[in-house]
Amino acid sequence: MAETLRADALRNREQILAAARRLLVEYGPDHPLEDIARAAGVGIGTLYRRFPDRAALVDAVISNGMDQLVAAAETALDEEPDAWSALCRFVRFCVSMRLGGLSSVIDAQRHEAIRLQPETIRRRLVLTAALGRMVRDAQADGMLRTDVDVGDIGMVINVHVRQSAGLAHLEASVDARLAELLLAGLRAAAEPEFPLPGVPLTGPDIGG
């Protein structure tokens, strides 16, 4: 049976995961856990009670990130009036959260092991299905260019994963501008003037 956390314990866990994602991406996977606990507003003992070692924390950050991606995609589909609006909302969320950032800095073998875990595969399939619905419906509505597929969207949202050193004060502005630049290139109106080379990337092409 899954563990049910008290509200304060759940809040602590979420704060630790958010701090870990930000600091590990910014400073690397070996950043001191004491700094992560301090940034989360908890004691190091609290961190270790939730995550007994660094590997467990990294696993949890990546797992939590996948959960957020799936939730964001499904919520966008449920709440937005059309598939293009849902896709725009999802891309903006991904850019602002930089959820793929940790994957870009951890050890390649560790990342591959996490990627092949059954639960990671399950989440990826759910996400791929949601993105597939956005892509197909937005293309049918004439809003999304026809020479892209789910894999292309996956690559697009992984473009922006780290904030340049010394530019933290521009973070919100950079995120917002980049999201709109990416979406402008995905619009159907961009396709005639800026055709893409090669063939569309599918979900299976990128492991989805």
From TrEMBL:
DNA-binding residues (ranges): 32-51
Domain of life: Bacteria
Keyword Transcription regulation: yes
SUPFAM superfamilies per record: Homeodomain-like, Tetracyclin repressor-like, C-terminal domain
Record's keyword terms, sorted: DNA-binding, Transcription, Transcription regulation
HTH tetR-type domain boundaries: 10-69
InterPro entries named among the record's database cross-references: Homeodomain-like_sf, HTH-type_TetR-like_transc_reg, HTH_TetR, Tet_transcr_reg_TetR-rel_C_sf, TetR_SbtR-like_C
Protein name as it appears in the record: TetR/AcrR family transcriptional regulator
Species in which this protein is naturally found: Fodinicola feengrottensis
